[in-house]
Amino acid sequence: MAWSILFVAGLLEISWAIGLKYTEGFTKLVPSVLTLGAMAGSIVLLGLALKSLPIGTAYAVWTGIGAVGTATLGIILFGEPATAFRLASIGLIVAGIVGLKLVT
């Protein structure tokens, strides 16, 4: 169950990271409120997952999910470059997440 909670926390991290782009420096009310809500939810769920997962593993997986998701959505939504090196680097983060899951 803790891994599922951590996964949702990672999805919320992606949400708030992408949401930051839409807040335009927190000058837009609705995106700002949604982004702050996603931030709070992400931290709360991370805290719940930490009841039974090691901090180093959980934090690395949480940030990894956020990094992979945000980088991928940056490519899809904002036209950021999808170079081979960038995609390979994202793949290495995914490999790290999977590796941490396998050894925990």
Structural description of this entry:
The longest helix is centred in the middle third of the chain and has 24 residues. The chain contains four helices and no strands. 84% of the residues lie in helices and 0% in strands. The chain has 104 residues and is mainly α. The mean pLDDT is 97.
Measure the end-to-end span: 14 Å
Q: Please trace the helix and strand order, writing H or E for each element.
A: HHHH
Give the DSSP E fraction (strand runs of 2 or more residues): under 5%
Low-confidence stretches: none
Determine the number of helices (DSSP H or I, runs of at least 4 residues). 4
What does the radius of gyration come to? 14 Å
Q: Which percent range fits the helix content?
A: over 70%
Average pLDDT, to the nearest integer? 97
Specify the oligomeric state.
single chain
Q: Given the helix and strand composition, which structural class is it? A: mainly alpha
Largest sheet: none
Shape: flat
Q: How many beta-strand elements?
A: 0
